[in-house]
């Protein structure tokens, strides 16, 4: 059964953040709150964790995985972007956007789209998410937690515990999350292509 941590939404407890980091460093898979529903996450090099998440979400090899970051500082290590793309990201982060970019060689192959070698990039506008990422000191491989045969993200940690507690190592309760998923933008061309319109405003992208 998973551990269940209730974090304060404005001042997340350092002790629980440290425990979350330790679980991830030991190969764990967590469910955690974001600005667009709950997400599933593990460290990017955790092959078994990635496979567990794929099974839990019924994902195929063509799914675009996402790396979560607390800010823009380390994104260039994992994704290729020039100055115009960086300016777009800077203007729209933190926020409910997933940016599709060409991946660098630092991204584990198991996370890459098999044909396009792309990776999703996120800088969420959520205090608990950012504090987890800062405590871990590395990006998280992440996918939105959408239950099998459903279409919207899960938004309640206790519901996740009741339905999926035996399949996770930790559930981070940060209260209710917005239900609408992120807006997904393919940034490999400018203006970017809107692949999915979600919570993030697309009016600035033509």
The CATH superfamily label reads DHBP synthase
Gyration radius, in Å: 16 Å
CATH topology heading: DHBP synthase
The helix count comes to 6
CATH architecture name:
Alpha-Beta Complex
- How does the major sheet shape up? 10 strands, mixed
Number of strands: 10
Domain YrdC-like: 14-200
InterPro entries: DHBP_synth_RibB-like_a/b_dom, Sua5-like_dom, SUA5_domain
GO molecular function: double-stranded RNA binding
Protein name: Threonylcarbamoyl-AMP synthase
Observed structural traits:
double-stranded RNA binding; Sua5-like_dom; 206 residues; ten-stranded mixed beta sheet; SUA5_domain; globular; alpha/beta; DHBP synthase; 26% helix
Description:
This protein is an alpha/beta fold and 206 residues long. The protein has one domain (3-199): DHBP synthase, CATH 3.90.870. 26% of the residues lie in helices and 22% in strands. The chain is built from six helices and ten strands. It has helices at 14-25, 47-57, 75-78, 83-91, 127-136, 157-164; strands spanning 3-6, 30-34, 37-42, 66-68, 97-102, 118-122, 140-144, 170-173, 183-186, 193-196. Strands 1-8-2-3-7-4-6-5-9-10 form a ten-stranded mixed beta sheet, with helices on both faces. β2 (30-34) and β3 (37-42) form a beta hairpin. α1 (14-25) crosses α5. The longest helix is centred in the N-terminal third of the chain and has 12 residues, at 14-25. It is globular, with a radius of gyration of 16 Å. This is Threonylcarbamoyl-AMP synthase. One of its GO terms (molecular function) is double-stranded RNA binding.
